[in-house]
Amino acid sequence: MPWLWAAAAHAPGPRRPAPAGAAAEPWREPAAGSAALRGAGRGAAAAAAMSAWRGSRCGSLCLGGRAAARRSALLRQRAGTGTGTGTGPCSGNGGGVRAGAGGFRPSRVAVVAKTTRYEFEQQRYRYAGLSEDDLRQLLALKGSNYAGLLERHRIHTKNVEHVVDSLRNERIEVRLVKRREYNEETVRWADAVISAGGDGTMLLAASKVFDKFKPVIGVNTDPERSEGHLCLPVRYTHSFPEALQKLYRGEFRWQWRQRIRLYLEGTGINPVPVDLHEQQLSQEQHSRAHINERFQDQRSDISGPHLLPVRALNEVFIGESLSSRENFKSCKPSFKFSLHRASYYEISVDDGPWEKQKSSGLNVCTGTGSKAWSYNINKVANQAVEEILNIAKKHGSLNTPLNTELIQKVTNDYNDSLLYSPEEPKMFFSIREPIVNRVFSSSRQRGFSSKVCVRSRCWDACMVVDGGTSFEFNDGAIASILIDTEDALCTVLLEE
Amino acid sequence: MPWLWAAAAHAPGPRRPAPAGAAAEPWREPAAGSAALRGAGRGAAAAAAMSAWRGSRCGSLCLGGRAAARRSALLRQRAGTGTGTGTGPCSGNGGGVRAGAGGFRPSRVAVVAKTTRYEFEQQRYRYAGLSEDDLRQLLALKGSNYAGLLERHRIHTKNVEHVVDSLRNERIEVRLVKRREYNEETVRWADAVISAGGDGTMLLAASKVFDKFKPVIGVNTDPERSEGHLCLPVRYTHSFPEALQKLYRGEFRWQWRQRIRLYLEGTGINPVPVDLHEQQLSQEQHSRAHINERFQDQRSDISGPHLLPVRALNEVFIGESLSSRENFKSCKPSFKFSLHRASYYEISVDDGPWEKQKSSGLNVCTGTGSKAWSYNINKVANQAVEEILNIAKKHGSLNTPLNTELIQKVTNDYNDSLLYSPEEPKMFFSIREPIVNRVFSSSRQRGFSSKVCVRSRCWDACMVVDGGTSFEFNDGAIASILIDTEDALCTVLLEE
Fold it and tell me: What residue spans carry the region label Disordered (chains A, B) (predicted)?
């Protein structure tokens, strides 16, 4: 989004961004868990909210004329469709959507297809100058089931074709793009984006969509093997026309998934995103490039905070690049050892006091992400709960005998408490594998919050958004992490 | 250790290595916790053990003539020194050690000095073609305290000089090497190795020492800022001559820290270690090199298991390179997204059934490592214990009211149960951030074991030893991870 990026880069902006949820958004019910299942009477409220929004936000976010046009188109449309449950978003290209009463009829759909493992292995070995036959041999030698990989690849391809054909049968214009070809232009062109793959593909597809009213819909193309929490129920993978009909008839619910926005300020920052999928530089080149760049940045006037041109649907991870998912970062080899895995930083939660931390990184997630990595970081195992209760028993504070049922109940209750609705405008932060010693504080290691500020004390760290986009985050940089309901991602809920 | 590597590479070796602790090692007491504090009467036992060892082990490990000579020198020495508490190890170069009654008098000492952050920043910016003055400016701009970094660097340098001078005053030959210059030749030359830095430097120094009777001693050169669990008590940093006198007079205890050995077998393996500190290739070059190499390997006869030429003092970490500490690994950028952070593998604990796992990697540690990363992976926070006990209370199974004292006691007891003595020949494995779903098993996620076998289902994974040495570990490879008491590292315990 160059225009948004430019706006963010030049607007001075608030030194401390307003806390999340500040913007009025009446069509998101407070009881967010069930909000997605009620859509009635949103039209008028939306109109009010939108006009309020235009007045109050346009300056601060510097949305261009196209965006404003989009909003008013929406107002007309909402007014027209009244209380239809599936009130349709307006298009990103000035009203190409044929929206029936409460229904949603995109005229242009971009389908983003994942790269299968078969394709990956193919790429990798071609890259090494080997033939398809070599690939077959190699995979066999590796104990990988070549036939199996090929089979999964065919299933995926078949499912993608099914989706594309279903769309074209409805005379919908379709652009089928590989993840690598997927770009802002395609997003602008489309009224809706369909990700064909798993959750990873859905994250990628969503990452380029900034328009709150441009739906992103996930189709799980490998239902037997992947979970696809962010995708439509698996039965629609094989009966996509049915899903389309439900969209047309408005037999669905919109779900706005909250996303995290990031501001970067301070010295030594480099607000240019690095796409982990396109990174081609060698370590050395990259190192030189970035250091000189940063050096120039710093010599020049240091503005900030910068609103970064990405939104996190699952999570933001901050950590030394050696422990984060970014693996091209410049870092003198002789140094990796001392780096080890620890990340140093200071953290302030909800404008509270700054606290030093040393850990395997920091994870800040949304309700959507609370079911993903954050959950795996924080959940406890039966085994641990059993041991903890046994110790409590030893200290004479348990009256009932320990049975597996109780252990399971306690485990489930604890782990369930880590999950919350994708529509709730709040974040959950987790200090990952905190290192507690005389220097570093042992206070709250996780919790809900509406704003997290992090001051980097890292040497070669990065801030990774949904495992896909990365920003340098070294000593001197300060990140403000918060939810603004304007950044929500529009998705579709269909019943099982 | 080329000779050891060659031996490992050509010896067929057992398909399943014998479980840890098989080799007799009478001078390691069963109650390992206190073993280090008792040394009396080890001499004769050692002699017996050693001769037994020579008979039973020499074939399988293919130790060369030098090693055998080393052993007999030891036998002579042990016989001579009888029951002295600080029975001195023999030298790596055929008896250069002047061992008094129970004392330890090395004649050649290698001092391995860490790279300070100041030196790192200097390297990094010189590398980018900037001057010392630019560095000063840049660090200031970054909010880093240039004076502070310089100060820490000077403290370190001063402490290193103190150690070197103390040694030379005793007419001990000293080789002062930077971590980068530290190599096998230096190890062979030295009777003892002193690491001057923190735990990271100690790990590096130990990683190249395979002789169980060549002591490695850690001096913490930045006591105010680093913990140095593996180093001598901090007071000896400033009074190193006192430490030397105690070594001479035998007023210390040997501590043999158990280490993990690794066997790699199967297809698609590449048992060549990659030193993370010397890795200079660009991703592309590296990718090509390794793939073609592997391709050749696989075409040729696949032997195994290979005994890898490293021993882990802290831990072995297995995971996709994106989640491990190795950051040069070849991986098509387009693929990182799907990779995300999950590692797929199968695990068998103590020859139990194979179980599928999907997680943020696998950590297998020693008693030494149980206080390091493994501890941070597994420890619970007060906060979590409080919530768990509250839930148990809600289920009516707590009789005493919850007070902070109880919570603290339970937390401490649980976390203490994760620690064990460095001398115990057992390992603790942790499945890190396990992902539990219908496909992957949720059974035991951590525990003590004497042997862990892992079958890789990873695409671009590595096995990282003590954060410093890495091996490719992709689909088709099988690792056997176990403790052999012959691999123990000889260290010195001095009272506070």
Answer: 6-30
